[in-house]
Amino acid sequence: MKKILLTFGTRPEAIKMAPLILELNKHRDKVKTIVCVTGQHREMLDQVLSIFKIKPDYDLNIMKKGQDLYDITSKVLLGLRDILNETQPDIVLVHGDTTTSMAAALAAYYQQIPVGHIEAGLRTNNIYSPWPEEINRQLIGRISNYNFSPTSTSSVNLINEGVSEKSIYITGNTVIDSLYWVVNKIKSDGLLNVKLKEEIKTFGYNIDRLQSNNRRMVLITGHRRENLGNGFIHIAQAIQELSFQFPNVDFVYPMHLNPNVRKSIYEVLGNDLSHFSNMFFIEPLEYLSFIYMMEKANIVLTDSGGIQEEAPSLKKPVLVMRDTTERPEAVDAGTVILVGTDKEKIVSNVNKLLTDNVYYQQMARAINPYGDGKACERIVEILLSI
């Protein structure tokens, strides 16, 4: 029986690996699935595990206050040494571009265990943007034996780097599998709908506001390291200006737990964020609640990678607060626009989407290039055949 070890440590990785674990579990007669989480994120990771009812076999629990990249890399490397020795997997699967994934791929390589890279081949070709994600995925790309690319563009990136075409498989992105699973869960469960609405209210936003006077909502997320400091200051200034321009639009920002992200927001708007009439700075949402909110939103303003893939499947225009993206397919397809952290650019692009319905519909109806929700089926089929 084939043994496959999946390792991940952050909420975005968990969201994208969870449907793959569920798909692998359908084949228990052919494969033993071993799940190891590192806890690079803790609370946000555990929320996703709970939603998909995944119980890890191993938990390195590395999260500590003030941890840096040296801490994460060394703890994952050393923690996985013993687990790989004990489990002796036939293949180790890592996801994307986190420091957990890079260190896990290296740990597997040190024991000459084949590595499979989910979401392989994304590139900006600027190792400092995003930092450290771009170098992480390039390093994983050098180690991986099996590259599961979400699109033809990402597969071409690998081929251009000299990666053997025989090791590359175009599968679509597993995040769409995850999204569809969650949307179906929400739509088929009336009690869950009520629960999510109440949960979001507890976190600081009453979604029933959208039912009065044709109110609209812009959903905002931000967490990138390269945006810390001036980037987030400009983002906060842009949100403030937009809130004055559009009093009938709610600007909702579930703030990342990173205190450095919050510091910039406080610097612009003050420490009391509860008194604004149409700006809502709320606590981070769990994955189900966030998807529920994204369905209700009109526009998504983000620096996240995964949301660039998810929101277009829900027909939501996405403005990306980054200067580069490893997802050029979305830009080419017209589902996202890069606005960086330039205040004027953010304001003008949100303004255009809120005031020009033809332009809005053009973005909302663009075809999402990231797949059909069957990426995990394809990956498992390949894994069982190798």
Overall description:
- This protein has 386 residues and is of the alpha/beta class.
- Helix content is 47%, strand content 15%.
- The chain has 2 domains: 2-173 and 372-385, 3-Layer(aba) Sandwich (Rossmann fold); 190-364, Glycogen Phosphorylase B (Rossmann fold, 3-Layer(aba) Sandwich).
- It has helices at residues 11-24, 43-51, 69-87, 99-110, 133-143, 152-160, 174-187, 190-203, 230-245, 259-269, 287-296, 306-310, 328-333, 343-355, 357-364, 375-385, and strands at 2-8, 31-37, 58-59, 91-95, 115-118, 146-149, 168-170, 216-221, 249-254, 279-282, 299-302, 318-320, 336-338.
- A 7-stranded parallel sheet has the order 3-2-1-4-5-6-7, sandwiched between helices. Strands 10-9-8-11-12-13 form a 6-stranded parallel sheet, sandwiched between helices.
- Helix 9 crosses helix 10 (259-269) and helix 9 packs parallel to helix 14 (343-355).
- It starts with a strand and ends with a helix.
- The mean pLDDT is 93.
Question: Main attributes?
Answer:
16 helices; Rossmann fold; 386 residues; 2 domains; 7-stranded parallel β-sheet; alpha/beta
The pLDDT mean sits at 93
CATH superfamily of the largest domain: Glycogen Phosphorylase B
State the total count of DSSP E strands. 13
Across the major sheet, the strand order is 3-2-1-4-5-6-7
The global form is globular
Count of the separate structural domains: 2
CATH class of the largest domain: Alpha Beta
Distance between the termini: 13 Å
CATH architecture of the largest domain: 3-Layer(aba) Sandwich
Question: Count the helices. How many?
Answer: 16
Low-confidence stretches: none
SSE sequence, one letter per element: EHEHEHEHEHEHEHHEHEHEHEHEHEHHH
Question: What name does the CATH topology of the largest domain carry?
Answer: Rossmann fold
Question: Class by helix and strand content?
Answer: alpha/beta
Give the radius of gyration: 20 Å
| Strand percentage | 15-25%
Largest sheet, in brief, is:
7 strands, parallel
The helicity comes to 40-55%
